[in-house]
Amino acid sequence: MLKRFIGIIFLALLMVALVACNTPGGTPAATTAAPAATTAATKAAATTTAAPAATTAAPAATTAVTQAAATQAVTTAATQAANNEMRYMFTDEPITLTVFCDFDAKASATLTSYNEMECFIAIAEKTGVILDFQHPPAGQGNELFNLMVASGDYTDLIWRNWVGFPGGPDKAIGDGIIIDVRPLVEEYAPNYLALLNDPRVEMRDVLTDSGKMFYFTFFRLEDWYRHTEGFYVRGDWLDMLNISPPESMDDWYNMLTAMKEYGPFNGATEVVPFAGAGIWNLHRFIAAYGIQRQFYLDRNDGSVKFGSMQPEYKEHVLEMQKWYREGLIDPEIITLDGAGFNARITGHVGGSFGGWLAGGMGTFMGLMQKDPDFQLAGAGWPKDDIGGGVRWNPSGIAHRAVEGAGFGISPTNKNPKESVQVLDYFYSEEGHYLINFGTEGKAYDMINGKPVLQDHIMNDPDMSPVQAISRYGQLTIWFSYIQDPDGFAQSLKYPGVREAGELNAQSDKSLTLPPITPTYEEGQRQAAIVNEFMAFVDESYAEWIINGVSLDNYDAYVQEIERMGIAEAIAIQEAALARYRAR
Predict the structure, then answer these.
(1) What whole-number percentage of the chain has pLDDT above 70?
(2) pTM check: above 0.85
(3) How many Cα atoms are found within 13 Å in the side-chain-facing hemisphere of 15?
């Protein structure tokens, strides 16, 4: 479909150019024809057959806008090439790469697709490489990715958490989902390769044990802005209740109980002390018991253990069961979607939540900036009272300069060289500012060698800087680039946001496994084992908490996980950890 789409565009350009050649006045044909060509191509694109459902995941209402934005980028690039107005960086003729990538909610305030984001339109015009983003609907990324894998009909670039891929990245490569990009990186990606040799980055974090390189990832090179995950509470409610942000799990229970007893607040008709869209939001509290939900490093001897079968896990479940029974947890936490959760917070119903510094706390502060009574405060990670008051931090993004997620290149990609080149461009100095902020002068200016966000970004009366900058660049969104620390710091403009990040950082990260990678054979076996028992773990978690099923069956639950092969899965993790440490 994409080839046909491009062909239609160039045919439209050719037809308009022929007409313009017979038009008096001497105006260059390509210049005169651009708007007509855009219109014709857009109309033609609207009649083309839709791409397979596994890859064309954008909601139907946004498809026309997405196609129009992609068409405009193609038309602009093609026109400039025809006029020799510019020299493409990586190709003689424009090419299109299809991209499977989640659409960040922060950008949805101003856009319907990354195809409309100013930085990607500028990148297409500069490099000749057009990125055609195909976003799954919110919450359906895993489902549509699995459909894409089952069909074998891959997009050219695929954004996933490859370190967390079932069976590991070697299995993703061995199964033909993505390719080993290392040879291409060594030949065509000097910026990325130089970054991987930066002393703040560990090269082994982006390689498998067999030496394969599987993705282009997201970097935070400074420690202070890696701590963006944690818990946040209504600070103005705490002032009314005359209590401080909670530190221990007992503090949390007492705070939530007080909210339930003395609420609603701010004129609302109901109160939900802890709000969340999805029961997985409760998983963050597991760290307060000195364990993690899945595989982690034991705090006493450093061995690999599986958290959701430990005695401490039972204590966590009992506490969550009590909270839910007493009405302290959102009764709709399983079914509530993102919009419903947002309404809980902005409607003065939700009193606390777990989530992100910029995309959660900062965004809500921006949305509610006209309400002087609305205040959020950071609560950090709960203390482990049994383990000496340690704040254990399970957040994967807080531990190292690289993320487990990034863009892999599919084996069906017909332009792997250009794909690597455009991804590498994002790590260059020029590409860094463009991907973070968009074109200089539109959303930011360079002042004394540093990017400074313009007033219309920092002081939009209807949205936060986090949302406003997303019209132009990826500054606060996970992507394959180096997140700019100066710009990110500016986006945290509201009172208490930067301090909340600092509180998140006051935590111990030693329970978290490094990005280990099983071999292909190990990965096949591990994926089969883990998929089976994690489905059982998730089902049991919901039954206990939501349905109030007694934990008298906990020993039988542990025995079932053992029967499913947890010992073998732990042995695979131990072997991979030993190889990682020996790299």
Answers:
(1) 85
(2) no
(3) 13
